[in-house]
Amino acid sequence: MGQLYRISCKKCGAASGASEGHGMGYVQNFENLFLNYMDENDRLSFARHVPSGSRNRIQKCSFSKTPLRCTKCLFITSKLVWSVKFEDGWTFSPPLRCEHCKGELTRFPLPAEGDFKCQCWECDGDSLNIELSAMWD
């Protein structure tokens, strides 16, 4: 099951969306990830990084929408976070970069619905609000 949340600043009204999870009908395999979830940039990045001799020997694959926060501009968002592990032990996960400032994105554990203390990405406010806006399966 997946959830979509709306996060907004109580002081300036800045808002962002963040989602987490996945639908019930999806399969955690590389074919599904590559064909249905990766965008073109992810596919190209993956192809450039695969060491020779590792092709077609995938041991494990995982992916899910994950809430993230930029360490530089503090923007809260979500992205598809994925990882592929090959039988030879080599693992690839793409770097998580902010769309706004190219800073590093780190996992952001979503608090319970309602108000919570956290610095706004637009102003110096320290009170944000989170509400569930949609669910999917």
Report what the structure shows.
- The protein is mostly beta strands and 137 residues long.
- It has one domain (2-136).
- 13% of the residues lie in helices and 42% in strands.
- Strand 3 and strand 4 (76-86) form a beta hairpin.
- It is elongated, with a radius of gyration of 17 Å.
Search tags:
2 helices, 137 residues, 8 strands, mainly beta, four-stranded antiparallel beta sheet
Number of distinct beta strands: 8
Count of folded domains: 1
Strand content: 35-45%
- How far apart the termini lie comes to 5 Å
Q: Radius of gyration over alpha carbons?
A: 17 Å
Strand count, sense and barrel status of the largest sheet are: 4 strands, antiparallel
Helix/strand class: mainly beta
Helix amount:
10-25%
- The strands making up the biggest β-sheet line up spatially as 2-1-8-7
Shape verdict:
elongated
Topology as a string of helices (H) and strands (E): EEHHEEEEEE
Oligomer state equals single chain
Average pLDDT number: 90
Number of helices: 2
In terms of per-residue confidence, which ranges show pLDDT below 50 for 5 or more consecutive residues?
none
Helix/strand layout:
Elements lengths: L1 E8 L5 E7 L8 H8 L2 H10 L8 E13 L5 E11 L4 E2 L12 E3 L6 E4 L9 E10 L1
Antiparallel strand pairs: 1-2, 1-8, 3-4, 3-6, 4-5, 7-8
Outline of this structure?
By secondary structure, the protein is mostly beta strands. The chain contains two helices and eight strands; from the N terminus they run ββααββββββ.
